[in-house]
Amino acid sequence: MAGRVGFHSDLITDIESPADEEGVHDSFCQLIEEQSHDHHDAIEMTSLELEEESRDDVMHLESPVYLRVDSEEPQHMECLIGGRWSSDTLKVLSSMPSRTIGRSRGAIISQYYNRTLQLRRRRQSRPSIQHFPRSARPSIRGHRVETDADEYEEDDNKRERLVNNLQNLSANDRVRMLRAMPLSLSEKKELRMLVLNKAEHSLSQNQIPCCSQLKYYIIIAVRHGWYGWLSFLSSLQLWQTALKCVGGHFGTGVLSYFLFLRTLLFFNVFLFLVTALFLVVPQAVVAPDPGRNTSVTSLWGLEVLTGAGYFSDSLMYYGYYSHQTLQPKHSCSKSINGTSCGLSYNMPLVYFFTIGAAFFITCIILVYTMSKSFGQSFRIDKSKGLLAIKVFSSWDYKVSKKSSVRLQRANIGTQLKELVAEVNREELKFSVLTRLFRVFIHMLAWLMCLGSTLACVLAVFYFSEHMHKKDVETRTRTSSSDGVMLKEASLLAVPVLVSCINVILPGFFNAVAWMEEYDSPSVLNYVSISRNLLLKVSVLGVLCHHWLGRVASDPEQLGLQCWESFVGQELYRFLLMDFIFMLLDTFFGEFLWRLFSQKALKRKRKPVFDIARNVLELIYGQTLAWLGVLFSPLLPVVQIIKLLFLFYMKKVSLMMNCQASGKPWRASQMTTIFITLLCFPSFLGASVCVTYTMWTMKPSAGCGPFRGLKTMFQAGKLWVQKLAADNPNLSWLASAHSYLVENPLFLFLCAAIFLIVIYFHSQVVDGQRKIIELLQEQIENEGGDKKFLITRLQDIHERKRVVSPRGVRGASEDSSYS
Is the dihedral of CA 242, 243, 246, 247 positive or negative? Predict the structure, then answer.
């Protein structure tokens, strides 16, 4: 019987398996048509059982390992991975909820077309039937096997149905479905061209009216213009190319430092715009007070470093600003009733509310930035999932320039190294004695760091007190010009000491951390940040005590007419010395060390960029700028110039003198930690000091906009009382001012609200993270259950198939004898 059946081997390779083709593709087509086919599937699967068993026998001849009854679990998993499933297993798989529930029309089309291509490739990879004896060849009678033309016609019909279904979708859904299809780019492009050609053909037959064509052209033009505008805005981002270059060569850890520097630059630009618009410009357009003493000894060279001399009586400092209501020269006109003035500017009131509003808006921006950063950095991002995304979908095919291609390649390569290092990172297990020894080393390191920090803080405290007493003595004497120069130079003693401590002590912290031998670079950075932060906060606390406890409490002892301007000059000196010592540290600590290491030691190794120390230097400088904006409204300009120079200097030094870390690591939460440190220790401390000064400290009697008042805060109270006296309808402003502004409870209430918002936002993010972890664990467990069930189904089928090959061989031998 088998001998009378004539067929070619090529025909056999094109035969479709009924369980693969009819049972799957018919189900997809019927799902699209939304018809019930349960009864039809049952009859079809029953009629095709026999042929599927014969096909399994062919596969049995190819790989006899599946006939073992006592196969172990790894063999079942290999069978599962190989995809050689029985008809029963395929039927159970096709009815699983994960493969049927939630399917959209486009998803069914995508899976339908993908299954067609997979079956076509599978048929091409099947072994030819001429390698098997005639008795083992399956019978194809009764399965509607026709010619090759019918097969190709059926494939064309399926492709035509797929194109029609894609054409019926909207443009956005069509693009989304094409992207979601697991096909090659050429196949997706071919499908897209077929759909577009068919759409153009139908449109040419319908003859679109002129109004519709004009509407389409306008929509296309507006869309191109919008995309061009977005591209232009993205090109205007500050230092975009430089940041990509840094991130590509040195990773996300070093990149987070430069991003934080750019954030600080934006904060200072905002602060400068507010103070310049409401304080500096109105005071500059009005003539200065005629009674002001402008005879100041000018010592060019030193006064640039000290901020004294010519700068002491300028728009730079608090003492220059008027305490009167400003009026332009030609704003007053004489009439019969008297002199009437049109425009007026209450400088004390504006000065008070400008500083308060600037700090309030900065606080809102910081809280919003920190909340947003918390949501972005503490989300659940599995390293393996990010690695897959980065490998398969990170390349931007719009990039065409060679330099941009090299930059993008370096950036992706560095991120892949970080992700691979995070995936392969393993926690080291130590013995009990080793753990005790490591704990002892850590405790000893922290004692050394705390002891050195305490020693430096005491040195700053006693040295500042000594210089304060010495300054009192020198101001009581009459001195010559050389004495004046020596007195001006002595003002730099405390800033130089503090800057030396800020440069030397972090190096000592790094040496101690090298002794501790941390395994993770991220943990090492967090520890270094903690130690440097403790040092900066302690030093700034001592300095604030020096300025507000010694200088502001008794300015007559120093002979100061304007202690606010003196404090502003002190902050200017500290900010400038900090910048100069950062330049020296970059030159000696990075450039000369690289030359010494390469020339003298004959090593190719370069120093690694110290993220913790440089970030804390930025936070220290920004704290000085926030402290000084009350006493020096133009101090943010100095900070802006410093940050601009610092960015380019650090970038050039990084490229020339530094190398990437030997252990790649991904800084996923670095930016959030930097913003948090900027908000709480830095901004909160500066806000407390400025608020304390405005609420409790007595202003100078001979300078500044608040002269003659008990506190700076009294300016707002006097203005409200004047408004209530002039207009009785506004008497409610006095009570509102007393309850909302004078009462510190309102200020603490606002701060508590901000903290509660941050806390709730962090708790929501933490709750979402825990829910995502539980869902991911549930998905993994369900995947394991599914593998277990499929393996057991395949095992049951293999056990049932043990007897079937013998029966098939006996039947084939009988047919050959006949």
Answer: negative
